[in-house]
Amino acid sequence: MRILIKTRAGRLLMLVLPLLMASAGCERTGEIAAKQADAEWVDLFDGETLGGWTGVNGTQAGGAWQVLDGNLVLTAGGAGDLITAEQFADFELALEWKISQGGNSGIIYRAASGDAPVWMSGMEYQVLDNRAFPNLEKPSHSAGAVFDLYAPSAAKAKPAGQYNKTRIRLQDGRVEHWLNGTRIVSYRLWSDDWKTRFARSKFSNYPGFARSTRGHIALQDHGDKVWYRKIKIRRL
Description:
Blueprint: H1 8-39, E1 42-43, E2 53-54, E3 65-68, E4 71-74, E5 82-84, E6 91-99, E7 104-111, E8 123-128, E9 164-171, E10 174-179, E11 182-188, H2 192-200, E12 216-219, E13 226-235
């Protein structure tokens, strides 16, 4: 039933109410969308076990990969790289990491299956102690870089022993690297710019590099102690 209010204030109220209701509806829709987005995130590490992770080509993970105090830790070199059992095409990955003093490691994505080292096929988000690493050759080898391809636009890495927040987003060939809340790299796979950089990089001798349309997430064993936690992913 509709009640007609003849006063000026009443007419104004009848005009405003639908706008308020529409606004409330938009807010509710936004809340639902946000909850759905949150629900899409899947934990890759439960804080207790290595479930969902293997060595290269499905082998048993090396013994130096351990769960300590809710962290996934490479306690010593020689364990080999650790990879997800699942493969991912377009995704957003979020995690936190810290590195030992002078340490070097990496997060590799879209790594192909097989016995070959994961860095021959997947792109690497560099994990590094920028301040103390003894042989930092160029900016594209620093923390947050696409190793040997794209240098970070800003130095946002925290010192060794402190946790950094990382995000990697890959969708429709567009890739972003984030470090501690700042987007530090953005590139498009197989663009003219990418091809130029690829030709000048160490990867130019590996024809399978960055060719996989889906692949594993890998945590690199580069011989240095490194910690990871709060590892989660969502498919895009």
